[in-house]
Amino acid sequence: MSTILESKVSLDAIPMNWRVVPRRWGHPLHSMCSYFAMFPPQLAHYLIAWLTSQGETIYDPFSGRGTSALEAIMLDRKAYASDLNPMATVLTKAKLDIPSQKQLNQRLDNLISILKDATVDISNTPPDIAMLYSADTLRQLVFMKSELNVNSFVDNFILASALGTMHANHTKSGEARGFSISMPNTFAMSPAYVRRYISEHGLTQPEVNVFEMLRLKIQRFDLPERPIHGGKSWQQDATAIAPAWLRKEKVKLVLTSPPYLEVIKYGKYNWVRLWLLGQEAKAVDDTLMASSSMARYIEFMSAFLLQMREVVADDGYVCLVIGDVRRNDEHINLAKAVWELAAEPQGWYLHSIIADELPLGVKVSRIWKNNIGRATKTDRLLLMSPHKVSIPEAITLDWDKPSLRN
């Protein structure tokens, strides 16, 4: 846990407080599975430490891979998180309901024992999936897909770990880092592209012991001796009415990164991982917000902010991390547009819009090609409250090595 130092910084200088921290700072659990448009754990850590106190509650309604949730529980806050993407729901739950190493090892041993005598039919596996894995590896994955229960926090954690290992680049010596042929770790190219690449490069599927690879991966997570239950996570559209208990309880801080203006298709580039969850990529994308229309985007953000008024405390804060986008030669300050067209008309109180210049090469941008809505190297923190309230003085942190505590 980081400690607060006495020196203060201005609001505009706040991003430098986490930009000077090494990029790989953060608990190993953050690396469980890559995810698009995720903000760094340093940002979440700082904002939670600055705007909330121990025991208070944060909520992330676009939870992604659970960055805010994990940082909240490491800072002794309660965390709530939701997302409409089923993959995000699994990943976030793994950061909030964390098993002990002992529980996970016992479950892995149990799965291995059950698999020995199990009859597993892989003949119905989609060809696009089958081309990635050896027959024995695929048998393990199909078994795991049917055996794991996301309602069990131990099983969910194993499933989330597997999502991050479904595909990865091999080492220079050819050793598999994931279950599949050598593929990028961050996203999966189209099935047609992968099939062509396999043929052109003569790739062969590696023989992988799925459960032992998962055991080794989980050992690197520096897990607590006892399980941690740090909050609640659920699947929900952020523009839908929040649960009654959440509207009654209220939260001190909403910290999240909403969708940008038609930047990415989460299902399309996670089709392999979604197969493990029994989900179709197109069906997932059909439910998620992705529009090139500014009018539709503002309508979406207006509906979202109306719901946030119902869940954030009167003296609480909403911090939205929104990236600028480009349309041809036009640079759009999307955070400013959200403030002027969605938030201000609803009566929100603006504290600041803080620019956070990202280092070059941080965002995965080559997949966007010439789409009309593309991310830039500038994120902005749109910091608001439902009413006019004071804001704490900005702080400076001593960035200790992060750890989970029971």
Kindly describe this structure.
The chain is of the alpha/beta class and 406 residues long. The chain has 15 helices and 12 strands. Helix 2 (41-51) packs across helix 3 (67-74), helix 5 (101-116) packs antiparallel against helix 10 and helix 14 packs across helix 15 (334-343). The longest helix is centred in the C-terminal third of the chain and has 18 residues, at 294-311.
List keywords for this structure.
406 residues; alpha/beta; eight-stranded mixed β-sheet; 15 helices
Offer a quick outline of the entry.
The protein has 15 helices and twelve strands.
Q: Kindly report the oligomeric state of this protein.
A: single chain
User: Per the principal axes of the C-alpha atoms, what is the gross shape?
Assistant: globular
Mean pLDDT: 91
Q: What does the radius of gyration come to? A: 21 Å
SSE class:
alpha/beta
> Gap between N and C termini, in Å?
13 Å
- Helix content percent band: 25-40%
Number of DSSP strands?
12
Largest sheet: 8 strands, mixed
Uncertain residue ranges: 4-8, 362-373
Q: How are helices and strands ordered from N to C?
A: EHHEHEHEHHHHHHEEHEHHHEEHEEE
Instruction: Tally the helices.
Output: 15
Strand content: 15-25%
Layout of helices and strands:
Elements: E1 3-8, H1 14-19, H2 41-51, E2 57-60, H3 67-74, E3 78-83, H4 86-96, E4 97-98, H5 101-116, H6 127-130, H7 135-147, H8 153-163, H9 191-201, H10 210-219, E5 228-229, E6 231-235, H11 244-249, E7 251-256, H12 271-276, H13 281-287, H14 294-311, E8 312-327, E9 330-332, H15 334-343, E10 349-357, E11 374-385, E12 395-398
Parallel strand pairs: 2-3, 2-7, 3-6, 7-8
Antiparallel strand pairs: 1-12, 4-5, 8-9, 8-11, 10-11
Helix pairs in contact: 2-3, 4-8, 5-8, 5-10, 14-15
